[in-house]
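Bump. Still looking for PPR4 protein structure tokens.
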Amino acid sequence: MNRTGACIDVGHITSAIRACWAAEGRRETAAKFLFQLGRSLGLTPNIATYTCLIGAYAQAGLCEVLAAYHEMRGLGIDPDSAFAETYLGTVLWPLPQDRQGAAVEAELVSRPPERLAAAREALADFKSVGVELTALSARIAKALRALETRGQG
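Sorry for the wait, here they are.
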């Protein structure tokens, strides 16, 4: 409960984190604070909370993104299609404006190998739990396979 007597629930925290995701600049600090606030209030995050947190982590270090993902999985929360697309977009940030196959592949060549590896590992995990990939996530998966086949990334 806050000072006004209203009970704060995970939906409030998730909405606030989503606002961070939409904000300009380095937004991961505020999102992380809000996420930790929710945890300190005894709130259990859900897939929507983690999707918004990962979206707000677009400019965060890979270690932070991976830690959040592993925490989510450790809580027994399975990814869904929206999370998968958000996660891949964050790990491989920034994605090209032209999100067709060739453009995605050309853009991914310049990504650090550890980010490409993280995306591949996540795709394997998504597959293992039966996540149906969105069109963009499927293009990213295809581009990563093509790069791997050619020995790039």
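Residues 22 and 56 are 8 Å apart (CA to CA).

Edit: fixed formatting.
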